[in-house]
Structures are given as C-alpha cells and as structure tokens.
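[audit] Reproducing an earlier prediction to check determinism. Same input, same settings, fresh worker. If the tokens differ from the archived copy the diff job will pick it up downstream; this log only records the rerun itself.
[audit] input (230 residues):
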Amino acid sequence: MKSVSYVNLGTMSYQPAFELQGAVNRYLQAHPEETGFLFMVEHPPVFTLGRNGQTEDFLFPIAMVKQQGFEVVESNRGGNVTYHGPGQLVGYLLINLEQFKKDVQWYVWSLEEWVIQTLARLGIAADRKPAYRGVWVGDEKICALGVAIKRWRTMHGFALNHKTNMDHFALINPCGITEYGVTSLDKQGIVIDREQLVQEMLQIFEDLFQCTLENTTLEEVKARVNITEA
C-alpha cells in the first residue's frame, strides 16, 4: 500500500508554509517514485488571495486590514480571498496524482469528501454546493478548499473552521461569495479538541485515499527535500 509522510507543523506563518509547499512540490516533480506529504498546520491571522482573488472582496481598505494585525498574502492556489487564523485546522496535501488518479475533479471531490466524512463522524450533516467549492452546512461554509496542480503534483488543500474567530470573516467576502455565510464546529455546538479532530481526519484520509500515513518531522522533510535555511 502507498505511504504518505505526515507532519504536524503546529503554528506556522503562511509565507514559510507556502515556501515549504513550493519546495516539496518541486521535489515531487523531480522524484516520480515519491507518493507525497500531508501537513497539518495553524496559521496566525492572514488573508490570502488565490489566483482569482480580487481586492474588491475586501470590505475595508487593505491598509486598514493590515493595521488591525492581519497579514495579506498572494498565493498560487485557485479561488478568491480567504481567511486563515487561530482555531482553524489547515491541511496541505502534496501528492503525486500519478500514483493515485490523474483526475482533477476526482481529487477535489476527494478533498471535500474527506471533510464531509469527518464531520459526519462528529454528528454534522455537511454537503457540497454545485456552484461553489468547499464543504457546507446548510447555507454556511464550514470548510474552504483551494488547490494548485503542477505536472500532476498537488499543493494547498483545505481550511476547516474549528474554534475560529468568525468575526474576522466580516472583513471580506469569503471566497468571493456574498449570498451565503460561514460557520464552524464551535458554532455548530461540537466540542472536540484539536488533536482529536486531527486524528479523526487522519483515519479517514487513510481509508479514502487507500494509503498509510507515516509520521515524520519538519526537519526530516527539509533534509529529504534538500531545503537549506537562508
């Protein structure tokens, strides 16, 4: 069975996490025998603009948003403006789709299904919306999705609202969507600690993607990918 290397990155700023993903993606392109990596992380407050992101989706001047302590960073993922911050579980899946299935629609569907099955275990009935990516509870988005794929090697992943400060979403039109709201596990009345939530997700990942996860460390990944500190 295929194995994917798993790392709990803890709390890490968006930019170094983005640069790590870029290095890993390039490594996977150069090493077709490698299956991939899964990173779980929590970011300090940051707004990221995907390839479709419009600054008009900020409801206040960006300078003012930055003055409030938020970073604003451009990203190469798909989608519009989204928010990451404390209390949110972010998963970055960097895999070689040639070892799974060379099908972008299947891949995005699988990311959504991963979250949907996790929420079902917790007693939340979540689903998709035909016109939008991500995972929804009724008319409120609980999980955003964004991906980038280069030569069938993936980057980015999901952002699941756990104990997120939902007030921060009021600064933007999340993912460019104006007609629907956002929610979180906490808002849905689900009490679960972060580590338990992660473990639920890891178990479902192995079943859904038909692979095993191997725990490793950031230092081991950097050595393997040949990342040298500046």
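[audit] rerun output stored. Observation attached for the diff report: The CA atoms of residues 47 and 83 lie 5 Å apart.
[audit] end
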